[in-house]
Design a protein that fits this description.
Elements lengths: L1 E10 L3 H12 L5 E4 L6 H10 L6 E6 L24 H7 L6 H20 L6 E4 L10 H10 L4 E2 L15 H22 L8 E3 L9 H9 L4 E7 L19 H11 L1 H9 L2 E4 L1 H4 L2
Parallel strand pairs: 1-2, 1-7, 1-8, 2-3, 3-4, 4-5, 6-7
Helix pairs in contact: 1-8, 4-5, 7-9
Length: 286
């Protein structure tokens, strides 16, 4: 049997992203959501969760070490000169090397603060993943597994995805990044196997970044293997006014196009045609 968790990342990044994600939830397209607790729209995300019937939706922590402001005092390796996380490229560069116990302890404290903020808000946490996949980096994976165990989070994302047979030339730059995440995920899987954490059988979404369309979804779903798959998506809305800050580039026309693709009748027809049943982490059990 083919089962699919459709997980929307970045709830809390801004109110436009929140609005788009909940449009997808209410349409029945998205079955799981990952939450940025240090995002500027985290309070708006909590209000939307409380106001929406979400009994069938899984919520997860979207651990963040790349953008925005830390919730705890962190060492210089985890921040820029203004005290914020240093941005995606720089954070990735700094966290590719493991073995610094002081750094790992600081990451553990920051993760505990982020998870604790979501738990204290009354949101059940079914799964754990990382903003820009930071949770699987060599300097971070141990802290990720430990935090999940300490807080009783049963599922963790392993974004290991085979490269599609065909990729258009315009997305080759993204392919380089996706290949890096795939290699890191493969290495992290060994650590996860030594824990009690669960992972999906398959993962899709790395190579759909910037190219999610009815056609690419059809191609992806047609080739979906049996078992449980997580499909990572990023629906949203365009910001009404000018946005500033580390998450200001998140909500643009591509996010709305992705939302339209996910909520279209064609996506539902594609799933039905290929015998794919939508599910969530909570429905799959602890």
């Amino acid at each position: 049997m083919k089962r699919l968790i459709v997980n929307a990342d970045d709830l809390g990044a801004d109110e436009a992203r929140n609005a788009g994600i909940f449009d997808a939830v209410e349409a029945g397209a998205v079955t799981a959501v990952s939450i940025l607790v240090n995002g500027p729209a985290f309070p708006d995300a909590l209000r939307r969760i409380a106001a929406t019937a979400c009994s069938d939706i899984s919520f997860g922590i979207h651990l963040n070490l790349t953008e925005g402001t830390p919730l705890t005092p962190v060492p210089a390796r985890l921040k820029d000169r203004d005290g914020r996380f240093p941005g995606k490229k720089e954070a990735h560069r700094r966290l590719l090397i493991m073995g610094n116990r002081d750094l790992e302890d600081a990451i553990g404290r920051e993760f505990a603060a982020q998870i604790g903020a979501l738990r204290d808000a009354g949101v059940p946490i079914d799964h754990l993943d990382g903003h820009q996949h930071i949770h699987i980096f060599p300097a971070v994976i141990e802290s990720s597994v430990r935090a999940a165990g300490e807080f009783g989070i049963p599922w963790i994302r392993i974004p290991e995805e085979p490269m599609p047979d065909c990729l258009v030339a315009s997305v080759q730059a993204d392919t380089v990044e996706a290949n890096m995440f795939r290699r890191l995920a493969k290495a992290a899987r060994g650590r996860v196997r030594r824990s009690a954490l669960r992972t999906t059988d398959h993962f899709r979404g790395l190579y759909l970044k910037g190219r999610l369309s009815p056609e690419s979804l059809e191609e992806t779903m047609a080739a979906l293997p049996s078992g449980l798959t997580e499909l990572m998506v990023h629906p949203g809305r365009v910001c009404a006014g000018q946005s500033h800050g580390p998450f200001s580039s998140f909500s643009h026309r591509d996010r709305e196009y992705e939302l339209e693709t996910l909520t279209s009748g064609r996506f539902r027809e594609t799933l039905t045609r290929h015998g794919i049943r939508r599910t969530s982490y909570s429905k799959e059990g602890p």
